[in-house]
Amino acid sequence: MNKKKMIRLTALVGVATATGVVAEANQAHAATTTTTETTNQTTNASVESTQAAVDAAQSAFDTAQTSVDNAQANVTSASNNVTSASATLSSAIANKEAATSENIASATSAVSSQAVVVASASQAVSEQAGVVSAAASVQASAQAEATSASASLSSSSANVASATSALSAAEAALTSDQSTAANNLSAAESAASSASAAVSSGQAAVDNAQAAVASAQAIVDVQSSDVINMSVAYITALKNYLANPSSANAAALQEVAKGADYVKELQQKFKSDASLDVVVDPSDPTVQEVLSVYAVNLINHLRNQYGLTTAFGASANANVAAIDFVKKYYDDEDWNIFGTNGKGHNKNGLDAYANQLNTSIAEDAGSGLTTWVNGKATMATTTLHNLLYAVYSDIATMLFDDGGTNKWSHAQSIFEDGTILGTGGFNNVYLGVAFDKYGYAHYELYNATEGNHLGNNAYSLDVQTAAQALLTNAQASLASAKASLQRMTTNLMVAKAAVVAAQNQLAALENSSANDLVAVTKARTQLASAETSYQTALATYKQKEEALKKAGDNLAAAQASLEAAQATLATAKAKLAELEETVANLTNADQLLAAAQAAYEQAVANLTTATGNLGAAQVDLAKAESQLALAEDTAEQAKVRAAIAAQVDQQLNGSTANDRQSAGQDATSLKTNGRALTATVATASAAKQKQGANQGRLPQTGNDDQEASTMALVGLGMLGMATGLYGYKKKKLTK
Q1: Residue whose C-alpha is closest to residue 463's, from 290, 631, 608, 331
Q2: For the segment 658-700, what is each residue's pLDDT rounded down to a tens digit?
Q3: 350-371 as b/e, with b when 16 or more CB fall inside 10 Å?
Q4: Most exposed among 229, 580, 593, 730, judged by the fewest C-beta atoms under 10 Å?
């Protein structure tokens, strides 16, 4: 209902009621005063009651609005969930369609390939961490040296100051006591004698330490392994070639390898050592252990540089098998693998022996004892030195192009993992070494299993540790003894110089005329020496500081490379995780599809429920909104009634007898001029009745009698208001 219209109708009804009580206005003044007070109380209570109804309706409306907002949010959320579930279902359907055995196999293969990449990246991180560690060690050493140089510089500076002070003292007091000089000479001679005895003792310690080093060195030469180091360029080129033996990769590898002079390297590695020049039998078990461990350590060091983590092993069983094979299929068959008309590898023998042992076998062969820089060695006269030299020479030669059809096949056999020369089944390689009767070396590579026992009686590949420790300790003792001898020798020289100085001082004191000059001259000499030492210490300090800076720069560069390697590893791991997730999705396609279908159906059901809840909430909101509008209209009517009642009270209580008489006269005028008003009231009453028929009765305050009394007073108030407006035109009842 239009609120303004409702207020207007209420006012008109009040005027219509007034027309019936105008004639009694004066006579009823006293009674009316009491009645209007009661009416004011009633209308005020009505205002409060209707306002409370408005507040309650507003609260109900707010609650309904909140319910609609929440329901709308739930519908939006449910709709979004349906969209998301639909996308997930589509993805699951696509994943199911893609989950063929071929795709799963391809994804699994990609995971395996990426795992290799991760392993390689991890190895790179480990290697670079080693570089950082080494650089940090160098930096720490440089720091220590710089600190020591700084201390030496400070000491030299103090010596200069001391020498300067000594010169001042010598120049100030140019005399010396004869007895002091004699005592100094005696002390110097005693010190010289002690220093000489110490030098003799130190020389004996050095001799003993050198003997210990020689003994330990002989043991190390027999049991330790030399190493062959490859350049990064060689490793990269070889990897490229083995991965793709194209002409371009072969040329690049040849270009990198052609400058390696391994013969010269061997000459530098092997020096004459009488302890190794002893004739031995290559088939002797002890010699076999030395040779196979020596060869395996060389190969494993190369494989480690190449980036392989699987190592070859050595065992007594593998050596026995190698000797048996070489004797049966080379010596007994007079099979000369090289020679003038060399037959090459005995492939039939290899096949037969592989079947006999029920395993995979690969063979590398080298010139062994037949080619030497310093002449040919024979089986009858061979020494441990010759055998070790032959093994080292063969393995070093295998790193280069053999020429002909072999090309890089020896290198391939060293650096393959799981397969050797195209033959699979090499997952646990053990090496046996044997020399044939022609002096050629054979390196038999067996795949050891529990069934063939070739890995049994395995040798320790770290047999040189104890000997190396012995050698290291002996070398440290020798170095310490030499350093001690050097200090003792220096002390002896100083002591002898002190004797000479004391003798000279005594002689100078005996010649009193030269005493003062000798003291001053000596002080000046010491000052000059101290200044020279200071300059030397200063130069050393600057050099060490520069070295420290360089070491710091190198460490920073190494750390940056390590961070780059770690980033590469992280990227590789992330890709591996992604590929593994792909495999998991393809493998579990049925389960993922079922879950996605169920989630989609649940989301649709949730949306249906949320939509229904929204509709119900909107109906409740419309009802609450209608009730709020009705309550607000009722409150507005109550406020108008209260205002009219207050105006009537004001008019009646403030009027005089003359005013009431005037009011009676004005009432006559109001009756005369109120025809149109009466007609309007009639029209409004009809409209109100129609409104009541359509909407029902508006809320009332108080009982029916109170309402009738109130309406009568409202009519009476309108009469008073008419009088008031006549006398006070500037006043207004409502806005």
Answers
A1: 290
A2: 555 554 554 454 444 444 433 443 344 444 444 444 444 334 4
A3: beebbeebebbbbbbbbbbbbe
A4: 730
pLDDT higher than 80, residue 40 = no
- Count H helices and E strands in the chain, helices first: 18, 6
- The CA distance from 179 to 185, in Å, is 10
Which token pair is 150? 């700084």
Residue 659's pLDDT is what? Answer: 54
- The alpha helices in 402-458, defined as continuous H runs, are 409-415
User: Residue range 351-361: average pLDDT?
Assistant: 95
User: Token pair for residue 141?
Assistant: 């050493």
Tokens, residue 355: 């079947």
d(CA 24, CA 28): 6
Provide the pairing of β-strand 361-366 with 441-447: antiparallel
Please state, in angstroms and rounded to a whole number, the distance separating the CA atoms of residues 395 and 269.
Answer: 14
The contacts of residue 262 (CB under 8 Å, 6+ apart) are 393, 396, 397, 399, 400
What pairing do the DSSP bridges indicate for beta strands 423-426 and 418-420? antiparallel
Look-up: residue for tokens 């320790």? Answer: 460
Please count the other Cβ atoms lying within 10 Å of the Cβ belonging to residue 89.
Answer: 20
Cβ proximity of 363 and 372 under 8 Å: no
Which strand (E) or helix (H) includes residue 432? strand 429-435
Residue type, position 143, single letter: Q
Residue 355, H or E segment: helix 347-357
> Cα angle vertex 61, ends 55, 62, to 5°?
90
What value does the mean pLDDT take over residues 89-101? 93
Residue whose tokens read 């076998």: 361
Residue among 312, 498, 550 nearest 415 (CA):
312
- Predicted confidence at residue 31, as pLDDT, reads 53
Q: Are strands 361-366 and 418-420 parallel, antiparallel or unpaired?
A: unpaired
Whole-structure pTM value: 0.39
Residue 2 phi/psi, 5-degree rounding, is: -70, 120
Q: 123-162: per-residue pLDDT in tens? A: 999 999 999 999 999 999 999 999 999 999 899 899 989 9
Q: What angle do CA 644, 645, 646 make, to 5 degrees?
A: 90
User: Contact 279/378 with Cβ under 8 angstroms?
Assistant: no
State how far the Cα of 308 lies from the Cα of 48, in Å rounded to an integer.
Answer: 94
Please report which confidence band the pLDDT of residue 550 belongs to, taking 50, 70 and 90 as the band edges. Answer: very high
Phi and psi dihedrals of 279, rounded to 5? -70, 130
Across the beta sheet with 441-447, the strand order is: 313-314, 429-435, 441-447, 361-366
Distance CA 345, CA 365 (A): 8
